[in-house]
């Protein structure tokens, strides 16, 4: 017989929720909305693995959000993400609850892995210089002379064949 803990471990998966919050909620209310999302995940039996506090970003294009029969256009938003482990049967319920929250412009839930998937930034030395291919004064290229008569003969031979 399986107990409930083993059953949850078998059905649980790792997910990542990326989201955009409306910019009108104000800087002081962002931690409140962020905390509510984390609380929602844990209340549904999820375990938070890693997360990032939402930060204001400029959007690549305007996004629309209809609230109370009014179309709102946004050029900026607070972007944040949460990586968590949750039972696969609870994800649909989480999606429905986040969908109903008017503070979210858009969100995306992805299946992922527990390991850190953020790419590390490459370090480039300041003294790194690209090698340019410039010719030195002493080097001369061999110049091949073009004989127009030979070229004409070759062309005529190709056309005739």
Overview in brief:
With 161 residues, the protein is of the alpha+beta class.
Low-confidence stretches at least 5 residues in length (pLDDT < 50)? 1-8
Spell the H/E element sequence: HEHEEHEH
Helix amount, in percent?
25-40%
Number of distinct beta strands: 4
How would you name the CATH homologous superfamily of one domain? Ribosomal protein S6/Translation elongation factor EF1B
Category by helix and strand content:
alpha+beta
The mean pLDDT is 80
For the largest beta sheet, what order do the strands appear in spatially?
2-3-1-4
Radius of gyration: 30 Å
Question: What report would you give on this structure?
Answer:
With 161 residues, the protein is α+β, with helices and mostly antiparallel strands. The protein has a domain at 4-111: Alpha-Beta Plaits, CATH 3.30.70.60. The protein has four helices and four strands. Strands 2-3-1-4 form a four-stranded antiparallel β-sheet. Strand 2 and strand 3 (70-87) form a beta hairpin. 12% of the residues are buried. Mean pLDDT is 80; it is low at 1-8. This is Small ribosomal subunit protein bS6.
């Amino acid at each position: 017989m399986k107990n409930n803990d083993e059953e949850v471990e078998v059905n649980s998966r790792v997910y990542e929720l990326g989201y955009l919050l409306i910019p009108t909620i104000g800087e002081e209310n962002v931690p409140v909305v962020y905390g509510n999302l984390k609380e929602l995940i844990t209340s549904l039996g999820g375990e938070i693995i890693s997360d990032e506090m939402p930060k204001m970003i400029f959007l690549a294009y305007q996004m629309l959000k209809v609230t109370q029969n009014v179309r709102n256009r946004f050029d900026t938003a607070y972007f944040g993400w949460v990586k968590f482990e949750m039972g696969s049967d609870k994800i649909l319920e989480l999606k429905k609850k986040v969908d109903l929250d008017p503070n979210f412009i858009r969100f995306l839930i992805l299946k992922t892995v527990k390991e850190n998937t953020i790419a590390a930034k490459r370090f480039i030395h300041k003294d790194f210089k690209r090698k340019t291919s410039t010719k030195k004064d002493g080097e001369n290229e061999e110049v091949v002379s073009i004989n127009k008569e030979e070229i004409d003969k070759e062309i005529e031979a190709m056309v005739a064949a």
